[in-house]
Amino acid sequence: MTHKKFNYPTQDALKAEISTLGVDIPLSDDLSPLRQPVQIGKHTAANAIAIQPMEGCDGTADGRPGELTLRRYDRFAKSGAGLIWAEACAIVPEGRANPRQLWMTDDNLDDYKKFVADIKETCRKENGFEPIVILQATHSGRYSKPEGVPAPLIAYNNPIFEGDHPISADRILSDDYLFGLEEKFGKTAALAEAAGFEGVDIKCCHRYLNSELLSAYERPGAFGGSLENRTRLLISGVQAAKAATSSDFIVTSRLNVYDGFPRPYGWGAAADGSVTPDLTEPLELVGKLHKELGMELLDVTIGNPYFNPHVNRPFDMGGYVPDEHPLEGVARMVACVGTIQRAYPDLKVISSGLSYLRQYAPNLAAAELAQGVCSMAGFGRESFAYPEFPREIFEKGALDPKKCCITCGKCTELMRAGSTAGCVIRDPAYLPIYRRDVLKEGQA
Predict the structure, then answer these.
(1) Could you give the CA distance from residue 108 to residue 388 in angstroms, rounded to a whole number?
(2) Residue 444 reports pLDDT greater than 60
């Protein structure tokens, strides 16, 4: 099978392909919904564009923002986005996804205070407002590599991933260990508020630890089996974060509502063993987060970028040929996000998966907002490639296709090579890094 690549010289050509496929991808030429402010609790985002958490793997060994980290967020601050969702920050050292993953502690809190203050000051000078800035608190679980080599800490062995080579039983986290993480989420939330962030994300997506627990149908004990048990760490993490911070502080989550794997190894799939989305359990979980715990903001995503990346980030180039058209993946994301938003219209839901549409992404984002699919439009890979994209939407009413992300996956290749991640195609800082660490040029 030949993979279909993005080739739509006009929006009419894109609409024709959407029609031929029979998928639901709304597009609008009226981009004004993107300009509208969004109220989140007692905070106001100046517009409806959010920069999604995109990890650069470029902090210092002791968890501080590094030179490339500061460069990236300076570009994000200048962008004009109303909300900047800062990347993964480990809650424990053994849960770091790489030796340079951010990790906030009492010792480096002042560095984070300056980090946040600089983002806000730069945005204020460039755009006339301060953005809402959220910190993502994470435990990388099966993707932990604190010393640069795989050191997985898993909720359960998954034969879809492990095949005939299960991870050793001593790497399966005990209930006692998981109970102990509650205070770690609370501690990170308290530090985030002290640093000046407006909120914290109890990360629960893309098969990191919290997300993996959602599908622990066959795990025994307090964190497996029932929906109450499988969501226990997320719920307790949210409760701990709320208890450790003020009432004005936003406690949120970037949440997988569908994994793309069959039960019992996938969350959000039908009970018949297929990969058909069934959001019954995710809707129940979101209801608890929103109605019972008072969560006012939710960042919705799907899939696993390490194993089935086409589910959440359709691509032009990748390690395999998906058995679906990329636009079918875009439509699935729209449907999943819309299902959550329409079930809970008072919840501010951020969409994902927009970057594949390049210069037409604002048209999808505006249509999603206008049709009640979401409350904010979240852009991920695009922010690596084209950090000034929000400002150009507002000032020019369009994006330059020559600046857009081309979904080539090279930023992910850098991450998988243990390097620092960024856009190899559009950002000149990363081509030499790619040549050195991925292509191994100039190495003996």
Answers:
(1) 29
(2) no
